[in-house]
Amino acid sequence: MKKNSVFYISLLITAVIVLVGLIVPGPFAQGMNVVKEFLVETFGWFYLIAMFVFVIFSLFIAFSRFGKIKLGPDDSVPEYSNRSWFAMLFGAGMGIGLVFWGVAEPLNHFVTFGGSEQAADLAMRKSFLHWGFHPWAAYSIIGMALAYFQFRKKTPGLISSIFLPILGEEGVRGPIGKLIDICAVFATVAGIATSLGQGTLQINSGLNYLFDIPTTRLVQIVIIVVLTVIYTWTAVSGIDKGIKLLSDINLLLAILILVGAFLIGPKIMTLNIFTNTLGGYFNNLVSESFSINPFGDNSWLGSWTIFYWSWWIAWGPFVGTFIARISKGRTIKEFVLGVIIAPSMVSFVWFSVFGSLGLNLDLGIIDKAKEVTETALFVVLAEYPLGMIFSIIAICLLCTFFITSANSGIFVLSMFSSEGDLNPGNDKKILWGVIQALLALVLLMTGGLDALQTCSIVAALPLTVIMLLCAVCLFKALMQERKSELPLQEEAEKVPK
């Protein structure tokens, strides 16, 4: 037990939260809301600054002299093709969220900001902001640092390993290193539970809208149980079999519904939205990254931007570790371009297509779609040709994204709780699969979407500090490697040619 204290302590903390939520759901939900309000009011500025730092640092490292360094030995090559690599990182990193918010977020912002042309423009720009460079930069901080130490420096696959430059081996193996890994495990469980809860709500709402299946806790429990069996099985099958295969299927389904939605939607409007919003995104990137109201109400900021930033941060250890695991042999520059630039562009296209589907409709239908976030996609698709078919594809995509996110999470949690073992045992995979499902159920039972959002915000605060220190550690290690190589380069230059 002493040897694997991270596993037992993390398990105990999660179990206590699950039990408290089941026994006293009312007080649990109220307590979570109090904590959420405190964190948003007190540390909102900190989340904003940290996320922008992640963007700048990642791009700086990629395009600096360090960009040519490989995440592994100098002679290593990537283990997976670019297609499979992208499919796995995209499915793990954000997939289910795109389906959930692709229509719902632009419409929510559009109505909130007044329903005008300016409101539509701002709604799309905010959607781009929340799903653009920032989340992927948060993933890349941990992914890049962990892959560097794990494959180039031969350290265990643990977040604490990144802290070797400032803690040393004794510090990493001691209480501070254990605390870092425990925070990573808890944040990972909370972040994944948030997404699984959202996915369950939307799958249930979609089935209700299309087939009149009731929206009840019992149905949601059945959905989670069925999908838990599937995602646990694929996690037990391993990366090369279950996770890789399902990620490839996932990507094909996503491309199918994206292309189909573009073809049945307002094509010129979609292209105009993409072009205009992309320009607005880059033009306002800095100002909107730091936008907070120092003199008034920040409730919208807390419900959207701060929620997203904390959600991405909570997902940082999980997605970062999984991306690191599948990125051996790639250069730092290749890693950053693949993890930040490419997925962000896909997100921009996704929101342009599905945002235009919603914004092209009458205000009455928009108001109806906004009423229940989980059904927004299905309400909008019903207004277009082949809407029923695309809705069924969307539900299938939700299920596959649900599974790919969860099985990747199980794999990473099992690594964290197995001393960084790159091929953890199936017993831990099964255990973490059950725990994830239980926590998602507890959050749904104690407050639905609000409780899910609160859980991410609470889990992200300590992790933000850890991730900022990860950037410091990586930079320090890269500088040390650079200094050690300079004498060798100078000697080589002195040799007569």
Automatic annotation (TrEMBL):
GO terms for cellular component: plasma membrane. It is a multi-pass membrane protein. It comes from Enterococcus florum. Belongs to the BCCT transporter (TC 2.A.15) family. One of its GO terms (molecular function) is transmembrane transporter activity. Keywords: Cell membrane, Membrane, Transmembrane, Transmembrane helix, Transport. The chain crosses the membrane at residues 7-24, 44-63, 84-104, 133-151, 179-198, 218-239, 251-274, 306-323, 335-353, 388-418, 430-451, 457-478. This is Glycine betaine transporter OpuD. It is found in: Cell membrane. The keyword Transmembrane helix applies.
